[in-house]
Design a protein that fits this description.
The chain has about 375 residues and is mainly β. Strands 1-30-29-28 form a four-stranded antiparallel sheet, with no helix packed on it. Strands 2-3-4-5 form a four-stranded antiparallel sheet, with no helix packed on it. A four-stranded antiparallel sheet has the order 6-7-8-9, with no helix packed on it.
């Protein structure tokens, strides 16, 4: 029986821990410069992709892995992040032009976006959030001006602004949990029931610069990825702290020196929407699927031909999208016109992302 992209159906199962990328499908008409972020809609098979070419593109994905560009809007500078509203009608880009811009797809507009947020420095990331007792969804933006701001899209001024310790590098939200990662390894945790202050602030459990934070599906904690080839699993509440741990990933043996290791940045972490397992992807050009509860790697995949800069699962978890692009880890001089920029769609089949079966001895 055939499944998505003509792959074997989910009934097919394998104990092999090396995954197959030979049937992964390339997105049609990808960005022309480095890809900074990509996000699936939670309501449909549409994918938003932001790029250093100053554009946010929206694609429609079909069941055979084919893709078609549906909309596009521009910033005045590179776009560093993107996100969807919960109802799937709006896409926001976070720009180096110090602005967040939003396209309302329900209006039939496919080429222009309105500015909905402003900072004093580039905006690194944005997410739509539900604030308890507020009727409308709000937008939260994180910037290199060391602030996060909450925006009611019907108003031109922020509803609230919270000053962080350092520049915002990554943020994510799930339910009432908002996690903000900044320079100098600070991680600020906010309960959206009281969005104007930090619930708690911690130093990253990892020793080097944070690249990404991603919330668990149930909002009880988050995963952290750093430039040192490490990932940490961190719970919010102290009562769960015994379950915190970190592990090495995205490393390889160096060709010179018996004990030398090449260490790569963990650029992206995404959680499977159904199974709660997660992916890591890095500058080494590989991605892996993990089960945090079993502390076990489910699958590892071959090198894809360049650094992986962003990843996301679609709403059902049947497609895993990853961007292959320069991640700026070696400076501007290494970014040449020959550098590959592409988005690949991987059909998730069989037991690739399913949690490891619990044994009798495991609780």
């Amino acid at each position: 029986m055939s499944g998505l992209f003509g792959q074997p159906s989910a009934a097919a199962s394998s104990t092999n821990t090396t995954g197959d990328i030979s049937k992964d499908v390339a997105l049609t008409a990808p960005p022309e410069d480095g890809i900074s972020d990509l996000k699936f809609s939670s309501q449909s098979e549409h994918l938003a992709v932001s790029s250093w070419d100053k554009k946010v593109r929206i694609y429609e994905i079909n069941s055979s892995g084919g893709s078609e560009g549906k909309a596009l809007f521009e910033h005045e500078q590179p776009v560093l992040g993107c996100c969807w509203s919960k109802d799937g009608t709006k896409v926001v880009g976070a720009g180096a032009d110090k602005a967040a811009r939003m396209m309302d797809l329900s209006s039939g507009n496919t080429t222009t976006a309105q500015q909905v947020a402003a900072h004093d420095a580039p905006i690194r990331c944005a997410r739509f959030v539900d604030i308890p007792n507020q009727q409308a969804q709000m937008l939260v933006t994180g910037s290199w001006d060391k602030t996060i701001k909450y925006w009611d899209l019907r108003q031109s001024q922020p509803v609230a602004s919270v000053t962080c310790q350092e520049r915002v590098y990554s943020l994510d939200v799930m339910n009432t949990l908002l996690v903000v990662a900044t320079a100098d390894r600070y991680i600020d945790i906010i309960n959206l029931s009281d969005p104007g202050k930090f619930y708690k602030t911690i130093q990253s459990p990892l020793k080097w610069q944070t690249r990404v934070v991603t919330c668990f599906n149930d909002g009880s904690g988050f995963a952290v990825g750093s430039v040192e080839g490490r990932c940490a699993i961190q719970y919010v509440e102290e009562k769960d702290s015994s379950a915190n741990f970190s592990f090495k990933c995205h490393r390889s043996a160096a060709q010179s020196g018996v004990n030398n290791t090449n260490v790569y940045s963990v650029n992206a972490i995404s959680f499977h929407p159904q199974h709660g397992t997660f992916s890591t992807a890095g500058s080494d050009g590989t991605f892996h699927f993990w089960d945090k509860d079993a502390k076990h790697r489910l699958k590892g995949y071959p090198e894809v031909g360049g650094s992986i800069t962003a990843t996301d699962f679609n709403r059902t978890g049947s497609i895993f999208a990853y961007s292959v692009s320069y991640d700026w880890s070696k400076g501007y001089a290494v970014n040449t016109p020959q550098t590959v920029n592409k988005v690949m769609l991987h059909a998730v089949t069989g037991d690739e992302c399913k949690p490891r079966p619990k044994t009798g001895g495991r609780k």
